Amino acid sequence: MLRNMNLPERPSKEEIKERLKKAGEELFALQMEIKNHKVPVCVLIEGWGAAGKGSLIGKIIKYIDPRFFNVAVVSAPTQEELRKPFLYRYFIQIPEAGRFTFFDGGWMEQTVKERAEGSLDKKAYKLRIESVKRFERQLTDNGYLLVKYFFQITEKEQKKRLEGLYSQEDTQWRISEYDKWQNENYDKCTDYFEKFMNDTNTSSAPWYIVDAQEKKWAQLQVMETLIQQIKVALQNQSLAVPILQNPFELKKMPLLNEIPLEGKEIPEDEYKEELKKLQKELGELHNRLYRKKVPVVIVYEGWDAAGKGGNIKRITEALDPRGYEVHPIASPQPYEKARHYLWRFWTRLPKTGHIAIFDRSWYGRVMVERLEGFCSENDWKRAYNEMNEFEKELSDWGAVIFKFWVQIDKDTQLERFTLRQNTPEKRWKITDEDWRNREKWDAYEEAVNEMIQKTSTTYAPWYVLESVDKKYARIKALKIVIKTLKKVLDD
To answer: Which of 202, 293, 411, 472 has the fewest CB atoms within 10 Å, i.e. is most exposed?
Structure first.
C-alpha cells in the first residue's frame, strides 16, 4: 500500500485554505448529528514518528465541543497493562455513543514495534492480526464508526523533522529511540507497516494514507475523509449487520431437560469432609497460579435461587483475598449502556495470576436482553459469535475460563422462592422481577439451551452444576476447577 500508493495531487495554498474553512464548518455541524444519533466515533492516527500526528489531532479537535471528545495518547504499555490482554488498553478507551475518541497511536504502532524488535514472532503476529480484525469488526458491527489514518512522510523528511526536534531543548523529549530506529531502518519499517495495513484493510474499516509532507494539506485530507465517513455512518445507521458463522470448534452439550437431577446429592458428613479437603487443595493451587502468572475467569449463570452465591462463596473461601475479585453483574449503568456491551467486562478482567469471578456475565445479552427486548434480534444473534471471540481473546492471552450453569427444576425454584418470601432475613433475596422471570421459564430455557449449544467451545466450555442439592453443586464446581487448574499448571 505504501510503496505503490497514488497520493492525491496537492492543491494550491489558497484552495487548501478555502477547503479547510468549509471542512471546519461541516465538522462543527456534524458533531451535533453524531451526538443526537448516538454514533460513537473512533479515529485512529498512526504513521511515522515525527509525521505530525499529535499536532494534527490538536487542529481537528478545535472544531469539536470539548465535552464530545477524548484523546487517548497511546505510549508504551505499562507493567500493569502488560498483565492484561493486548486489546485491553484500547477496548477500555472506546467512546460512549455520541462522542469521539482520537487515538494518538494504537494497535498498529504497538504491533509493528514488537514485530520490529523481534518480541512478536510470525505465529504470535498472526494471532495479533486476528485479534485486531475481530476488535475492529466488533466495533463497526455494534454501530461504531472507525476511521484509520496512516501518516506518510519520506525518509528524508522524517530525518529533517527529527533533527529539528532534537535541536531544541524543549522538544528533545518528543523523540524516542524507536523514532530514531525507524529512520535508520526506513525500508524495513515500510515493509512492516505495509504488511499490517494489507492484513487489516477491510471494507468496514479501510486504511487512509495521508500525504503528511505538508501539515495543512495533511489536515485537509483527514478532515474531508472524516466528514465523508461520518455522513456515510449516519446514512447507514439503521442497516442490519450480517450474522457470521461461528468459526470455533464447539463441544456437544445436552439440553437442560436431558440432564437428570435426581440422585445428584451428597450426605452432610461427606460434604463437610470433601469441602475441607478441596478448599485446601484450591488454596494451594491459587499460590501456584500467582507464581506462574496464570489468569482465571469464572462465570456463573443459572436460574434465580439456583445457588450461585453459595457456590461462589465456597470457591472464594479457599482463595487469598488479595488475588481475586467477585463481580456481581446487574443492569448496566447509563455510561455502560452507551458503549459496546462487552466494554464493562473488558474493564473487569483480572491481571495475570489473579482470578475474576462473574456472578452473571456477558451472557445476559442472549438471555434477559434478548427476552426483555433490551437489544434487537440482530444484536443478540450476532452476540454468540462475538462472545466466542471475546473468550478466544482471553484464552489466547493464557486465561483459564470456567463457565458454570447452575441448574434446578421449576419445583425446586418455587420452594426456594417461597422460603425466601416467608423468611424475614432472606426476603431481600426475592424481588417482583424474580416472580416475573419465573413466568417466562419456558422461554428462558429455550434461550439458555441455544446459548449453551452455540457458546460451549473447546477453549471455554460450559459445565452444568446440578443444584437441587446445593452441596452437590458446590463440590462438583470445586472438583472441576481443581482438575482443570492442575492440568494447566502441570503442563
So the answer is: 411
